[in-house]
Amino acid sequence: MLTPRAIESFVGLFLLITILALIMLAFKVSGLTSFFQVKGYEVSAEFDDIGQLKVRSPVKIGGVVVGEISTISLDPVSFKAIVRMHINSRFNEIPDDSSAGILTAGLLGDNYIAINPMYSQSFLKNGGQLHDTHSAMILEKLIGQLIYKLGNSSTKESAATDKVDTKDANLAISNKDNSHEKN
Predict the structure, then answer these.
(1) For the chain (length 183 residues), average pLDDT per consecutive 10?
(2) Which residues pair with 40 in a beta bridge?
(3) Which of 28, 68, 151, 158 matches a 20 to 30 Å C-alpha distance to 94?
């Protein structure tokens, strides 16, 4: 039979393991998976609109995470968003003519940067820049454009219908006048 001191020691050890597991879970969920930044290099890209992109959002190639967003700033001259990305050193052969686009994970998911490699034989280096960029598709803007176009098309349809009705009325009047002349 275990002594009360041994039982208390086991309970204390279990409690300590539980607390450590919860701390690790909190780091994993928050994206802080490591205390030290992975070796790599920095590249940047300019976007007209970054949507809800955040620092520490993933950078992916073909769905595989190759890095993360390190900083986001605004260019005071062009008023474009400058996004700096930290790319893992394992992925050091990304062609320098690649394009970068901001995509959304699912319908309501977080934004991330997707890099589409091209065919250049020279690769991105520390301080490099991705010149071919595609801004975020913002759902509110798309809905606004759809509503605007639907509103304009119904106005055009009603104007076209009015023109047809006017032509029909004029034709009916002229036919009526022609029938009176014959009588």
Answers:
(1) 89 96 83 68 94 91 93 94 95 93 82 93 93 85 86 64 53 51 47
(2) 88
(3) 28
* Residue carrying structure tokens 């034709």: 171
Instruction: For residue 136, give every residue at least 6 positions away whose Cβ sits within 8 Å of its Cβ, in sequence order, or none.
Output: 47, 49, 50, 51, 52, 53, 102, 103, 104, 111
Decide if 66 contacts 116 (C-beta within 8 A): no
Sequence-distant (≥ 6) Cβ neighbours of residue 119 within 8 angstroms: 95, 97
The answer to whether 100 touches 130, Cβ cutoff 8 Å, is: yes
pLDDT the model gives residue 87: 95
Per-residue DSSP letters for 80-140? PEEEEEEEETT----BTT-EEEEEESSSS--EEEEEE----SSB--TTEEE-EEE----HH
CA distances from 62 to 12, 56, 88 (A): 46, 19, 15
Phi, psi of 95 (to 5 degrees): -55, 140
In degrees rounded to 5, what are phi and psi of residue 76? Answer: -70, -15
Residue 76 identity: P
pLDDT at 183: 47
